[in-house]
Every structure is written in structure tokens, then in C-alpha cells.
């Protein structure tokens, strides 16, 4: 009996390890520093003692995905594509077309993105974020279906334009996100936070239990990514960004002000420091996490997000990160006859 139980345990362990080793399509670079024994420890840490209760309670409304859930969640894929391409290229020098080509659904590759000159710690964070975005896109497509990847401009020229507009004059030399870790973190400050805003805004308008579970999982990781980026920058808030002699804190203030201006709906983003009355409970001027007077995350609508991402302040005028416009029925609705699923 003991030998049978031991064999059963080993079979279960092998099945668990096999399930964790499934590679992404066409594979991706494997971290050679990962201790191989960790997988075994993780596998043996569960199912100890009596069988656990792993299933959530039955939903109050037993509908997995409502028809009106689909468009808002598919719209979010535009930002997930953007983050995936930016982080993957920054860490690995390749994007979805090499890591998980089927997820692009035939959309064009991003332009201008490239491998960044990152220190080891920043590289590890960026690589993890990029691979997380692959999972996000896959989860959205599995739950509500997908939209093709839009044309995404992640060129140094485009990020230089963002910073120039944020400061109101041309930085000299032009800002380049790929030249070092600090610049890449500042460029990362520009985009992922918008995904967080979008998910907070989407939550009240979806109802399916699978859709809500998906959104909660996405929001949790997007918020975590934003917190990591802001914390890394907060540690260097008083440091001057070479060669501009402008502090990290001022960069974040200016980018936040630009997003608020392009979003056209008041303050929904703040830099790393704020006047004390805008800080948590009006008692502190540090601002590691951007939040409202009740310390709740700000929400943005698709129109507000597109105005920012297009860098035009107008959801009907593409540009910026989406030169040809974002994809999906919501984005197309703002473009009228200029864009449709058949164009």
C-alpha cells in the first residue's frame, strides 16, 4: 500500500511539473538563473492534508459573459498589446511575433521598438511584465474573443514627442526611452497606468461572472506593475535625469499633467509628489500611488484613453501610439467612416 501511495504521489508530482512547463508558441528565452529545485518545492506545497475547497461560490447571476461585456474587454486589448510590445522589445529585443505570434491575430508588428540598455534588476522586472502581458492578451481572447493587434508606434521619436509636449518645448537631445534604465522607466510611466484607469472604468459596465473574474485578475496585475514602476521612480525622485537637469519627480508631474490635459476630464493622474492637501487624507505630500481623495484608483472611459494615447486629445483623431487608430468596435465607433472592421 505504501509503495502504491508513493507511486501515486510521484505521478501527481510529474503531472504538476509538466503542466507548469508548457512553452509559449515558438518559445521564449528561458531564465538560466532559476533554481531547478524550486518547481519541486512549489509542487509539493499544495494538496497537503485533506482535499482543499478550490472552487469559488456559485455566482449570483449564472451568466459567464454577457454580450455587452465583449466590446469593453476587447477594447482593453489595445493597451495590453501596447504594453506587451514595449516590455518584450525592451527586455528581449523581440515582440509578440517571436514570443506568441498567434495572439497578434494578423495585426501589423509594432514600429520603432527595440531592446533597451537595462541594468539587471530593471531587465528582470521588464521581462516579467512583458511575459505577463502575453498572458493577459491570451486570457482576454479566451474569454471574450480577440481583435487584431493595431499598428503601434513605440519609436524614440514618438516618446520624444510625448516628453516635448509634456514640457512645452523640445528637449535637447530628444528623449530616448531605450538608452538606459531610468529613461525606460520614465517611458513606462507613460502607458501602463492607463490600463489601470481603463479597467476601473470598465468594471461597472460588465456583468458576466467570467468577465468580472477576468477583469479583477487583470486589474490586480496592472495595478501591481504601475506600483512597481512608480516605486522605482519614487526612489530616484530627486535625481536629475541626464542630460536635462530635470528631476525624475518633475518628469512625472509633467507627464501626468499632459495626460490630464489630453483626457479632458479633470485630474485623474498625479505625479510622485503632490501638494499636501492632495495627498492621502490631506496629510502627506508623497504620492507613490496615484489615487483620489478617498485613495481610490481613478477611472477613465475609452474616449478619454484614446485622446491620451492618440496624443491629440480627440478620440476621433488617431495619432501618437496608434497612428491608424486603435482596434475594436468601440474605437472604430469614434472614427466613423474612417475605420471599420472591413477597412
From TrEMBL:
Residue stretches in coiled coil: none
Signal peptide residues on this chain, from the entry's feature table: 1-23
Pfam family, one: Ferritin_2
Domain of life: Eukaryota
Annotated InterPro entries: Pigment-catalase-like
Keyword annotations from UniProtKB, A to Z: Signal
Keyword check for Membrane: no
Protein name: Desiccation-related protein PCC13-62
Organism: Urochloa decumbens
Biological classification of the source: Eukaryota, Viridiplantae, Streptophyta, Embryophyta, Tracheophyta
Amino acid at each position: 500500500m505504501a509503495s502504491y501511495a508513493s507511486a501515486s504521489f510521484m505521478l501527481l508530482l510529474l503531472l504538476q511539473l509538466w503542466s507548469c512547463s508548457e512553452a509559449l508558441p515558438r518559445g521564449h528565452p528561458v531564465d538560466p538563473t532559476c533554481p531547478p529545485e524550486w518547481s519541486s518545492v512549489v509542487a509539493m506545497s499544495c494538496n497537503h492534508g485533506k482535499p482543499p475547497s478550490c472552487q469559488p461560490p456559485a455566482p449570483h447571476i449564472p451568466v459567464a459573459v454577457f454580450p455587452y461585456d465583449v466590446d469593453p474587454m476587447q477594447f482593453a486589448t489595445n493597451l495590453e498589446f501596447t504594453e506587451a510590445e514595449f516590455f518584450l522589445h525592451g527586455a528581449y529585443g523581440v515582440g509578440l511575433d517571436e514570443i506568441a505570434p498567434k495572439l497578434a491575430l494578423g495585426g501589423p508588428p509594432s514600429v520603432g521598438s527595440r531592446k533597451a540598455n537595462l541594468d539587471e534588476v530593471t531587465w528582470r522586472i521588464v521581462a516579467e511584465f512583458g511575459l505577463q502581458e502575453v498572458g493577459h492578451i491570451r486570457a482576454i481572447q479566451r474569454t471574450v474573443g480577440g481583435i487584431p493587434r493595431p499598428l503601434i508606434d513605440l519609436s524614440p521619436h514618438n516618446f520624444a514627442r510625448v516628453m516635448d509636449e509634456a514640457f512645452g518645448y523640445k528637449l535637447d537631445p530628444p528623449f530616448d526611452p531605450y538608452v538606459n534604465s531610468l529613461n525606460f522607466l520614465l517611458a513606462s510611466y507613460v502607458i501602463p497606468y492607463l490600463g489601470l484607469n481603463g479597467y476601473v472604468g470598465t468594471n461597472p459596465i460588465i456583468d458576466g461572472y467570467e468577465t468580472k473574474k477576468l477583469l479583477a485578475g487583470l486589474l490586480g496585475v496592472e495595478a501591481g506593475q504601475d506600483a512597481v514602476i512608480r516605486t522605482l521612480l519614487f526612489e530616484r525622485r530627486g535625481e536629475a535625469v541626464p542630460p536635462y537637469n530635470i528631476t525624475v519627480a518633475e518628469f512625472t508631474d509633467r507627464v501626468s499633467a499632459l495626460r490630464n490635459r489630453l483626457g479632458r476630464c479633470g485630474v485623474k493622474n498625479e505625479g510622485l509628489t503632490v501638494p499636501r492637501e492632495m495627498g492621502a487624507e490631506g496629510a502627506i505630500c508623497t504620492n507613490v500611488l496615484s489615487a483620489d481623495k478617498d485613495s481610490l484608483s481613478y477611472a477613465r472611459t475609452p474616449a478619454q484613453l484614446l485622446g491620451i494615447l492618440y496624443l491629440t486629445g480627440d478620440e476621433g483623431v488617431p495619432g501618437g501610439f496608434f497612428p491608424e487608430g486603435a482596434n475594436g468596435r468601440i474605437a472604430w465607433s469614434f472614427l466613423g467612416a474612417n475605420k471599420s472592421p472591413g477597412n
